[in-house]
Request: fold
Amino acid sequence: MKPAFEPGTGYLKVTLAGKYSLPGLREAIAAIGAEADRGSHARALVDISDLQGEISELDRYDAGVFAAERLGRMERVVVLSGLHFRADHFFENVARNRGLQVRETRDPAEAIAWITSP
Reply:
């Protein structure tokens, strides 16, 4: 579940694919933070729509806390998920409550509009 990075217009595009695991997700979040620092990226679009497996509620909580710790200095992060993921915004709420400006969506157009808006 190694992240693939490519520059977008004004943001870092990250794709996560493969089989889900919490340790793998934590490693990916840390790698996103490191890549954002290296490239001076203030925003990131993280596409997890091809990630395989179920992310439990406890894992989404853990990921929200960890993402806020590792990515909290970023201006904005949007997570683009597939239809097979729950759309209850639990991860988003956990991370936002800890200072990360993040949004979850299933709509690619909404993700790009939010990440590129002033």
